[in-house]
Amino acid sequence: MTLLAVERIKLFTTRSPIWCTLAALAVTIGFAALVAGVDNENPATIASSQFGYGFGLVVIMVMATLAITTEYRFGTIRATFQAVPNRISALLAKTTVVAGFAALVGLVTAFGSVAITKAIKSNADLAINTAFEWRATAGTGLVYAAAAIIAVAVGILIRHSAGAVSLVLIYSQLVESLIALIPKVGDDIQKWMPFYVANRFLTGDPDVTSRAVAEGPPASVTPLSPWGAAAYFVGFALVLLAIALFTANKRDA
């Protein structure tokens, strides 16, 4: 508990988490408001309210990456490892705090997006009742948390802020999409890319509504079930974190 308290203090005494959180809230809820305000032809749904989910996810991954790389940049990680010789415990505490905070931000952005959509289109039926609707909203917290774990792991492995942030952004925004362009095997490979699979958890098995689920986060055709996709994404994050912890434990700080 002491390690968690220390990491919480370290996280919230820097500016980047605050600015990243505000940016994630603004861009995600803002896009929900934009979609609800400009589209008068289709009824608003839970799926359409989550249109900006991916934009907020990117911002939170940047925040998670900076949470660890700034320690390497300013050398505070050395003091941390001197105070806590068990490096794995210290890094796990940081990862837990960052992932927990990311999950909270994900929940706020998701339900905030529903709320702003309801405020703009008061006649829309935005009750969250079905399994799909709960996954599309509350499930965002789980995806944000796992994505934050991936970002922290990348930060531990690379240790350089610019490099780690660049890798996180390029992979999540470009690589998985470009994979599909590989002749013959691209589509088959993309079906197993982690962020592509995560979208299956949020968009899989949609309810029959008058608005396609594609109006929200990009649909995924991975063969996994929605909860199988969630387990796959979380498993990928934990495996990458394990590799990062092993590496950090073997090399100089």
UniProtKB/TrEMBL annotation:
The keyword Transcription regulation does not apply. The chain crosses the membrane at residues 18-38, 50-70, 91-116, 136-158, 165-183, 227-248. This is ABC transporter permease. Keywords: Membrane, Transmembrane, Transmembrane helix. It comes from the Bacteria. It comes from Actinophytocola xanthii.
